[in-house]
């Protein structure tokens, strides 16, 4: 009988310890277990010959200023202190842009109430994509005013920014929609102007990962 009581007591102790062990496990696993990389900490290996990168220094998004679909001047200055998600597109794109913009709608919706997150969609066909055209496109995708900005500006500045700022391949189609070449990537940029991630804007799982990692950056600011 005595041995049975000892066994029963041991079983009871094990049962009581289970919640404690679960709490310890969760705390251990949730502490700094998800690190988001910082890209180009030692500079960029110059994939585009026209870019002038600083050797051995953290790459940051350079200064730029474009015109939004609401005719506002917006650029790198407004990125300071915020998490910014950027993509390059054009409204007459016959291939990947509609999918990218539909996926960006989801991102916009998730962070609609969060003033620390914004979106820049930058046109690589600025001669066609006037603020008026971009306004219609923004309306089509139910873009949140003041959060999701569609930008246009000087073509050479836009292409320099894509290649040398965001390190994305971009080729001018000279007005022919099928001849334009641009990346499908959404780029996550932190409040210091550092690139923290690239995600395929045509892949739902990749966009889900972007949303998660954006939230992690936000929590890191708190």
From TrEMBL:
Residue stretches making up the Thioredoxin domain: 40-216
Name of the featured protein: Protein SCO1/2
Sequence similarity: Belongs to the SCO1/2 family.
Top-rank taxon, per record: Bacteria
A GO molecular-function annotation: metal ion binding
InterPro entries: SCO1/SenC, Thioredoxin-like_sf, Thioredoxin_domain
Transmembrane domains' residue ranges: 6-26
Pfam families per UniProt: SCO1-SenC
Disulfide bonds: 93-97
Binding site for Cu cation: 93, 97, 182
Keywords annotated in UniProt: Copper, Disulfide bond, Membrane, Metal-binding, Transmembrane, Transmembrane helix
């Amino acid at each position: 009988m005595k041995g049975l009581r000892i066994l029963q007591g041991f079983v009871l102790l094990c049962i009581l310890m289970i919640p404690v062990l679960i709490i310890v496990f969760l705390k251990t696993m949730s502490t700094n277990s998800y690190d988001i990389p910082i890209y180009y900490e030692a500079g960029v290996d110059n994939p585009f010959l026209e870019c002038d990168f600083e050797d051995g220094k953290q790459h940051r998004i350079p200064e730029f200023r474009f015109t939004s679909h609401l005719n506002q001047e917006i650029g790198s200055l407004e990125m300071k202190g915020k998490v910014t998600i950027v993509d390059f597109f054009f409204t007459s794109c016959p291939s990947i842009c509609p999918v990218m913009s539909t996926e960006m709608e989801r991102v916009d919706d998730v962070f609609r109430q969060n003033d620390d997150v914004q979106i820049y969609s930058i046109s690589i066909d600025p001669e066609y994509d006037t603020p008026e055209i971009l306004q219609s496109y923004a309306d089509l995708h139910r873009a949140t005013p003041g959060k999701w900005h569609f930008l246009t500006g000087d073509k050479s500045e836009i292409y320099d920014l894509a290649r040398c700022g965001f390190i994305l391949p971009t080729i001018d189609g000279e007005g022919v929609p099928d001849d334009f070449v641009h990346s499908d990537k959404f780029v996550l940029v932190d409040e210091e102007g550092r690139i923290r991630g690239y995600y395929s804007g045509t892949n739902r799982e990749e966009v889900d990962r972007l949303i998660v990692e954006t939230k992690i950056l936000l929590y890191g600011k708190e």
